[in-house]
Amino acid sequence: MMHQIAQALPECDVWYTPYYGDPLIEKLAHHGWLEFSVLGGKHRARATAYLQHHGLRLDPGGVAHDYDLVVTCSDLIIPKNVRRRKIVLVQEGMTDPENFMFHLVKHLRLPRYLASTSTTGLSGLYEKFCVASEGYRQLFIRKGVPPDRLVVTGIPNFDNAAQYRHNDFPHRHFVLVATSDTRETFKFDNRKRFLQRACAIAAGRPMIFKLHPNEIFARAAREIRACVPEATIYQEGNVHHMIANCDVLITQYSSVVYTGLALQKEVHSCFDLEQLRALAPIQNGGTSAHNIAAVCRELLSRPAVMVPSAWPGRPPLAPDRRKAFAA
Question: Model's pTM, two decimal places?
């Protein structure tokens, strides 16, 4: 997603870094305590491999340059070395429900990552927040994000579902079950009940399971085999192509449900479907990256002014320095 946005800004000098935190967070990640999160070694290795494969310039930790603009898809952690830069936040996918932990974190000002993605947008440390749809704009306003910081641009990873109909995935006309890494992120998951429900919906039709990349494969596969011995199980592969070829999509808490809705599949989810339809990312034929780039370009063109934080006690945002761009 960041790569697409950067490609829409050819005039900028772009450098990339895998997601990172401040020294304490980095020390926890180094000792393997954050493997369940995007800060874990497996996710970082995957991000680094992607950047190297595409020949993109790396600056791990954003230390090599004095950046004018930072584009990030999460504000659960905003490292100190970029907090006074201009920041554009881009919605990555669906956000977690507002449970007890969300309200605890919001009202007691605890670290936002404790409530996972339910607190997305609540840092107040960015100038613009590019979101997937008007439905999400309203959701973030209700959570407390100032309306003038929200821009409905669409998001590059969910704005052109039609493209996935052209694929080489060999199977068609099956029930696809896309599981979530709920247990690996320390949330409750009645997997046995979910599998029983999926089998009931399938009603004897062929079933393919796509595991979340962060799931423990051996455990998940063993559980599936106990219920559906003949099922095909993937942990890698393009889930959007699988969705395009399936007849029915069953998900837990995954953003890929939006691909199923956009392709007008029969969809089942642990979330309320009417709410999902109201939030569904706009389909604009793949132009979201250009919309987001326009937001970035407008920020880069602004004169050097200090932008006051919308949240009491937070520092003002940075003055303008136009030299480089980091994603």
Answer: 0.85
